[in-house]
Amino acid sequence: MKILYQGTAAAEGIPALFCECEACRHARAVGGHEIRMRSGALVDGVLKLDFGPDSYRQELDAHLDYSHLKSVLITHSHEDHLSAHELALRREVYAYVYGEDNVMTVYGNARTGDLLAKYLNPLLEYRQVFPFETFETAEGYRVTPLDAVHCVWDQGGMYPLTYKGKKYFRSEQALFYLIEKDDKRLLYGHDTSEFTSEDMEFLAGKHLDLVSLDCTNGALVNKWVGHMGCENDLNMRRALTENGAADGRTVFVANHFSHNGVRPEAEMQQLLPGFIIAYDGLEIEF
Ligand SMILES: [Zn+2]
Ligand SMILES: [Zn+2]
User: How far is the CA of 249 from the centre of ligand 1 (A)?
Assistant: First the structure.
């Protein structure tokens, strides 16, 4: 299995669209790995993870052709992960996709379905998926959505959550994904806080080959519920190792950075020993 990191930033990108903070000035000056587009990835060239506003640029940059993509997994409906109006371009006049097997299925939560509803057509379908209910994609990936601690508010949401002894609500059921094929397991852990006890129970004893962890808060400690930083990523590596989901062979990747907490690449590497620090265009085969 291999994963291509197409975009490795949070919603605002790095440098952020309208920002002159120190991190953004650094990124503009240095370029290269410090420039990060909005989040998205691609597994084995065929399984798309999230479809944010930079997906088109990322298609061109990697010389890809999304015409025959069959499956897109959406983590949640925030605009940096789901550009419904871009997916809407998969319909006739805007797109011609030849062959009988030309349907692309977008898997996601109820909110994703609401946003896509008016765009569905013979080339684009949607399927709602739920935490801990495994399904199989057309390419033969076994996918299990997990329960993400994201889209979290203190009050006023449809989806109650008790997390580390505190009660919250969520505006939607955000998901992250366990992806399995040919005895390989990829855990794509974006966007979420440290995993719930139900997630940890589900993952216990499963050998994960690659674990990709949210690092939005970067060097900041416990800045926002709904995301992780370096310290949380280290905690997660310890916890996943303790419950038998990871071992010395598991590749850990930190990904999804924000200008608020990110530091230059070498500094991120020092904060996260043993982790691969994701950058746009990084490909890892495992
Ligand atoms: Zn995000
Ligand atoms: Zn900035």
Answer: 27
